[in-house]
Structure to design on (218 residues):
């Protein structure tokens, strides 16, 4: 089986030496080059076409994130693992947006780093276990924010009307439930359809269910 070709990128020579010593002991790895900054990382990726790049996130000049983005755009066959001492959310999500296939902390054990490189080499995406919960929390928050913004143009009364529409109530039933005139309810429904950009009550009901309207009723 062909060895995985690895490029090590870190501005500290001692770190590069330590990583090379660890990875050179693996029979299925071959460290083909080292780089000390972002520009060298891009150049040596072009020269050596590594399978996996283990790169520090903080580098002199351009950051590892900027180098990662350039590499993943120009050389998508080379997978980047960001290796960092920092568990900062913004760095984590910037690295993901830049196309990093893995993000691990430098506190990781040697065997775990080897496993991470093997996983990324197989085409898998990998996060340090200590960071996984943060990603899920951000995804859930983004989903909640998107759902809330889906009803941003509706008044509280319109949201109540939409909720009853989603339950299949008729205008008369909604009027009785909210102590409104039936004509007023018709006007509310018409306004809701316009604000949501849907054509009929069924589409409005589906929209309400899809965006979890119940969670935003006061």
């Amino acid at each position: 089986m062909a060895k995985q070709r690895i490029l090590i990128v870190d501005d500290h020579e001692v770190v590069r030496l330590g990583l090379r010593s660890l990875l050179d002991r693996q029979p299925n790895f071959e460290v083909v080059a080292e780089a000390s900054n972002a520009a060298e990382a891009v150049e040596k990726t072009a020269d050596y076409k590594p399978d996996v790049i283990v790169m520090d996130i903080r580098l002199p000049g351009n950051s590892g994130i900027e180098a990662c983005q350039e590499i993943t755009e120009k050389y998508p066959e080379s997978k980047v693992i960001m290796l960092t001492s920092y568990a900062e959310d913004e760095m984590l999500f910037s690295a993901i947006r830049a196309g990093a296939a893995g993000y691990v902390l430098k506190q990781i054990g040697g065997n775990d780093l080897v496993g991470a490189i093997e996983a990324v080499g197989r085409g898998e995406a990998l996060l340090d276990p200590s960071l996984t919960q943060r990603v899920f929390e951000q995804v859930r928050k983004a989903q909640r924010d998107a759902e809330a913004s889906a009803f941003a143009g509706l008044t509280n009364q319109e949201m109540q009307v939409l909720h009853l529409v989603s339950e299949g109530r008729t205008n008369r039933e909604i009027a009785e439930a909210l102590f409104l005139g039936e004509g007023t309810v018709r006007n509310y429904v018409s306004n809701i359809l316009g604000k949501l950009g849907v054509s009929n009550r069924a589409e409005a009901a589906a929209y309400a269910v899809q965006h979890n309207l119940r969670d935003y009723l006061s």
